[in-house]
């Protein structure tokens, strides 16, 4: 797994798309898993709003996120969002950050991916 330093992946929800919530949960899990099967992954992955829930202890995506982190991906979590969902003690992947850093990462990116 190589890092693509030009890309930042933004995950703003614990579901993918609009419609049935259960289907959205299945889709985001599948999306994150497929990333781990790719030859390259984004260098930075940002989680905000309910997306931060995917980094917590009861997330079905946790193993895949830890694998990407182990392979050098920088995983950043919106601190305000972590506080809002009261999951600070349950976060097991990534680093709690702030909106300034998130904005800087997005400004530096040549390509922003948002599923």
Break the fold down into its secondary structure elements and pairings.
Blueprint: E1 2-11, H1 21-37, E2 40-47, H2 62-70, E3 74-78, H3 79-84, E4 95-97, H4 99-108, E5 111-113
Parallel strand pairs: 1-2, 1-5, 2-3, 3-4
Helix pairs in contact: 1-2
Written description of the protein model:
With 115 residues, the protein is α/β, with parallel strands linked by helices. The protein has helices at 21-37, 62-70, 79-84, 99-108; strands spanning 2-11, 40-47, 74-78, 95-97, 111-113. The protein has one domain: DsrEFH-like (Hypothetical Protein Ychn, Chain: A), CATH 3.40.1260.10. Helices cover 37% and strands 25% of the residues. It has a 5-stranded parallel beta sheet with strand order 4-3-2-1-5, with helices on both faces. Helix 1 runs parallel beside helix 2. The longest helix is centred in the N-terminal third of the chain and has 17 residues, at 21-37. It starts with a strand and ends with a strand. The mean pLDDT is 96.
């Amino acid at each position: 797994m190589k890092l693509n330093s030009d890309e930042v992946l933004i995950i703003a929800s614990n579901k993918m798309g609009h419609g049935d919530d259960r289907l959205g949960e299945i889709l985001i899990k599948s999306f994150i898993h497929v990333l781990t099967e790719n030859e390259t992954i984004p260098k930075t992955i940002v989680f905000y709003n309910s997306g931060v829930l995917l980094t917590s202890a009861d997330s079905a995506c946790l193993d895949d996120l830890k694998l990407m982190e182990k392979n050098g991906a920088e995983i950043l979590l919106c601190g305000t969002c972590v506080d809002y969902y009261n999951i600070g003690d349950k976060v097991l992947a990534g680093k709690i950050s702030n909106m300034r850093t998130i904005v800087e990462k997005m400004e530096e990116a040549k390509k922003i991916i948002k599923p």
